[in-house]
């Protein structure tokens, strides 16, 4: 019997969850087509599962960037592909310090004892343009009287915390709303609001505890892939900018529904048939969410792509660690390829982005924050063992990002984009 249960906080994956190993040279390409019966079931619900499987993918590629599909270029004058580039040494100051009171405790690596500060002294240099430092005053002036919402999982919260701390160098915000699933900050002098909505799947879902354990997981998530989550939908119209993201939660134990009918589940779901790859379900979600946004939302939307974790010698709760102290640099030899699963998710995200933008009357209202490759190059940017520990937490966090750290690049991308369209 399944018992309804409130979801636990998402700071770490449940015991046993395995995002496919990201840094093993022996990663194997699994079959990407669901069984024929699954395709028939999906087709009956108006879904085309095969559209979410790029052809000829390989976990072994010649160039790290070859793995990532090029999205349509931005439309403003002078636009460049920000995601192509490299990290270069930089001795400039961090946008904020460990004393920022708005930092996440688990991401405040310096406060938690990290002594190697070299990871702070790099900046991202795009291949074909210049990326300015983040100017908090410029950002607040640009967004005066406006409201920005970040929608997603704990990595979206990671970005929100970094943004609030950066803007706090100009003005201390008022914490207008504070709960686990929703946080709102107001910068009164600029009449500017930042809100974070915890929506790890972007679509409606329930979570239940079952009597069985699969891959170390008992919680079972039931996702309605065609229904954007009410938590952000009910507020979206009041905002001017929305940044959406999702990815890692799709590797939890999930059943998938379309039109309120079960269409299948992932390999951890407990189903003996109708197995649907998690990235295929993610593709359906993105199409649903972007269709809703591009037809109902009058503001600017940015889709942030999947990041990259850097666990070595194991996964969460299995001895995984991340002890690198510098980025991957092309001058040091061969840069490891972008992990296969991250390649797949990035391709699906850029594909659905392109599809949504092509359907819009005003495509300038939809933009891509393609951070996958830049984050792949930063194995040194995670909290690792320098996080607040609790008895049920992993000994190393190689998924989230130190604040300050590489995560601040995401907000540079946001400002760069807004400067050209507002």
UniProtKB/TrEMBL annotation:
Major localization listed first in the record, in broad terms:
membrane
One GO molecular-function annotation for this sequence? O-acetyltransferase activity
Q: Where in the cell is it found?
A: Membrane
Q: Does the keyword rRNA-binding apply?
A: no
Say which species the protein is native to.
Ceratopteris richardii
Which branch of life, at top level? Eukaryota
Q: Which residues form the Trichome birefringence-like C-terminal domain?
A: 131-416
Q: What is this protein called?
A: Trichome birefringence-like N-terminal domain-containing protein
List where the protein spans the membrane: 32-53
Q: Which InterPro entries does the annotation name?
A: TBL (IPR029962), TBL_C (IPR026057), TBL_N (IPR025846)
């Amino acid at each position: 019997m399944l018992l309804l249960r409130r979801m636990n906080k998402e700071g770490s994956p449940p015991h046993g969850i395995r995002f496919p190993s990201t840094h093993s040279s022996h990663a194997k390409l699994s079959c990407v087509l669901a069984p024929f019966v699954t395709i028939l079931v999906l087709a009956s619900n108006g879904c085309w599962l095969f559209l979410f499987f790029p052809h000829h993918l390989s976990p072994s590629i010649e160039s790290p960037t070859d793995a990532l599909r090029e999205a349509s270029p931005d439309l403003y004058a002078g636009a460049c592909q920000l995601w192509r580039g490299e990290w270069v040494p930089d001795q400039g100051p961090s946008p904020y310090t460990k004393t920022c009171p708005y930092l996440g405790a688990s991401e405040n690596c310096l406060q938690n004892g990290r002594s190697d500060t070299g990871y702070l002294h790099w900046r991202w240099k795009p291949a074909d343009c210049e990326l300015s430092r983040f100017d908090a005053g410029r950002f607040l002036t640009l967004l005066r009287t406006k409201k920005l919402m970040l929608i997603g999982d704990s990595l979206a919260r990671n970005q929100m915390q970094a943004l609030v701390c950066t803007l706090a160098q100009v003005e201390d915000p008022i914490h207008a709303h504070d709960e686990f699933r929703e946080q709102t900050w107001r910068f009164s002098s600029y009449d500017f609001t930042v809100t974070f909505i915890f929506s790890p799947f972007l679509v409606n879902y329930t979570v239940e505890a079952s009597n069985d354990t699969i891959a170390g997981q008992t919680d079972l998530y039931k996702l309605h892939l065609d229904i954007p989550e009410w938590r952000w939908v009910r507020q979206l119209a009041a905002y001017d900018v929305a940044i959406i993201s999702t990815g890692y939660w799709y590797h939890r134990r999930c059943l998938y529904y379309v039109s309120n009918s079960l269409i299948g589940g992932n390999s951890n779901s407990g189903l003996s048939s109708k197995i649907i790859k998690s990235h295929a379900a993610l593709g359906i979600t993105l199409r649903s969410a972007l269709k809703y946004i591009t037809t109902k939302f009058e503001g600017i939307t940015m889709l942030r792509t999947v990041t990259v974790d850097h666990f070595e010698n194991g996964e969460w709760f299995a001895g995984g660690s991340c002890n690198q102290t510098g980025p991957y640099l092309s001058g040091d030899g061969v840069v490891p390829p972008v992990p296969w699963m991250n390649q797949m998710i990035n391709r699906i995200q850029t594909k659905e982005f392109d599809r949504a933008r092509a359907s819009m009357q005003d495509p300038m209202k939809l933009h891509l924050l393609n951070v996958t490759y830049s984050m792949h190059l930063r194995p040194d940017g995670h909290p690792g063992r320098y996080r607040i520990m609790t008895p049920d937490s992993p000994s190393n966090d190689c998924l989230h990002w130190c604040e300050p750290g590489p995560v601040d690049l995401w907000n540079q991308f946001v400002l760069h984009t807004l400067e050209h369209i507002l």
